[in-house]
Amino acid sequence: MSRTTRLLTLLQVLRGKKRPVTAATLAAELEISERTLYRDIAELTALGAPIHGEAGIGYVLRSGLFLPPLMLNADETEAIVLGLRYVDQRGDEVLSKAAADALAKIAAVLDPQAQEAMRNPTLMPGPPGYGFPQNAVPLNVFRHAIRDQAKLHIDYADAQQVPSQRLIWPLALGFLNEVRIIVAWCELREAYRTFRTDRIAAASLAGERYPGRRSDLLRAWHKHMQLDENGRFTPDKN
Question: What is the residue range of the signal peptide feature (predicted)?
Answer without folding.
Answer: none
